[in-house]
Amino acid sequence: MSDIPLLSSVQRFLDSNPGSFVDGRSVSEPGAERFELFNPSNASVLTLVSHASEALVERAVQAASGAFHGSWGSTTPYLRGVALNRLADLIEANAEELAQLESLSSGKSIHLTRQLEVPQSVVFLRYFAGWATKIHGQTMTPSLPSFQGEQYAAFTLREAVGVVAGITPWNFSLMIGLWKIASALTCGCTIVLKPSEFTPLSLLRIAELAIEAGIPAGALNIVNGSGRIGQQLIGHKDIAKVSFTGSVPTGVAVGKAALSANLTRVTLELGGKNPAAFLADVDVDAAVEGILQTAYVHQGQVCAAPERLYIHRSKVEAICAKLAERLGAMKVGGALDEAAQFGPLANKAHHDKILGFFAQANARGQVICGGKPLPGPGYFVQPTLLRALDEHDPFLQEETFGPIVTVLPFDNEDELVRMMNDSPFGLGASVWTNDLAKAMRLIPRIEAGTVWVNMHTFLDPAVPFGGVKGSGIGREFGSAFIDDYTELKSVMMRF
Ligand code: NAD
Prior knowledge:
This protein has helices at residues 8-14, 54-69, 77-93, 95-106, 110-131, 173-186, 202-212, 227-235, 248-262, 284-295, 313-328, 348-363, 413-421, 436-442, 480-485; strands at residues 20-22, 25-27, 34-39, 44-50, 139-140, 152-160, 163-167, 190-194, 220-222, 239-245, 265-269, 274-278, 306-312, 367-369, 384-387, 404-410, 425-426, 428-432, 450-453, 468-469, 472-473, 486-494. By secondary structure, the chain is of the alpha/beta class.
């Protein structure tokens, strides 16, 4: 089937010389450095984007600082919630435009942006908006002795930390960006957000909608360009907190830079090498369906997706055979092709990296199915299933962040737990079984920020999400995010 037609508003957006969004206005600086934005489905240039200059980034921080000390800082919690809910309404009203913008530059299937990324962003935003009126300190009774009849009282205030620098990756640009925007604005902070240079468009549109929703100029700023903008933000004296989502090596550099800048608070949502364990009692068809829905969605470019499958030896042949058959039958096509079940990788550098993994797997004879590039001009590869050579196989250690899943059989639970935990990462893990007692015994033994049972990679705004070990520091969602975007102030009084 062919691609859906682009909305005229999307075409206009592409033609508009997009750049940044600072202090309530779209800005494309005259004479600015510009970078090409590619369409991963056909490798064509979608548009040229203006790279924010140092001076523009400085203006963005000043605008955010002004809004923090002024308009947004003095907005009541109730009205903050109202504005965020209005933004959610506007996202719904412009859903198709946002879905097309996001799919175009990320290569993500239009089904996924229409059915998951855009509507789930709305769900998350409304959830955050509800917290705006529920952020509070506590009162406590001091135990100080009273010598002359004096009494004491104490309470805590939860105060917004200030201007947040958000730095985000390319895989779910709209949704991850909105998580950071919503967390900051709900708590009364303001934000300067730097999206990935591969997917700079959809958040620019969100910033326009935020103004329409009544969020004042300067409260949300988007600065587009390379990692050096991130570095400038992290080192800035007026940035009170850095919220980063991306790869482990960049995250480590970001964490070090933030701490050495001004002991700046930092939360890191990093990569994973997530294990999924299929116990002896699993139903083969249900297991295959679960793997297809979670490991290969968005071509495996999902931080929490399972990349390591530990399957009980009694089921490994049946699951692999059926999975290989289903993967081989997937219809491959571009992001805007509604008939496609599997799309392109997000960019050329990532495509090259995945081809490097394929070369290693083919050389070592590990390929069960896939393992080859597909004809271009887009960045297409086959969905791939590999056999691990042993439990120390490099394909069980390094994150590929692509459609490469590696399988190893196990015989008993102790061996399974050892192998699942043998990783520098700890983002997500799953256990697939009908034996609830077994699942409950395994959960505390698994080193991961989230353990799913009979599911994987499902995120809900009410459930905290984040990594342990090398997968990060901090939690998003639930009420946990409030600790990261507010500071506790203690007050003591004598009367
Ligand atoms: P990346 O680390 O290459 O880039 C992330 C962001 O950091 C981009 O905006 C980039 O421009 C910026 N950046 C690069 N160098 C920088 C520097 N020195 N200082 C400041 N900013 C800098 O990651 P990516 O390739 O865009 O995304 C893929 C990675 O993100 C994967 O490892 C994936 O697992 C991870 N990820 C994690 C989560 C999570 O919630 N844990 C979610 C999505 C993606």
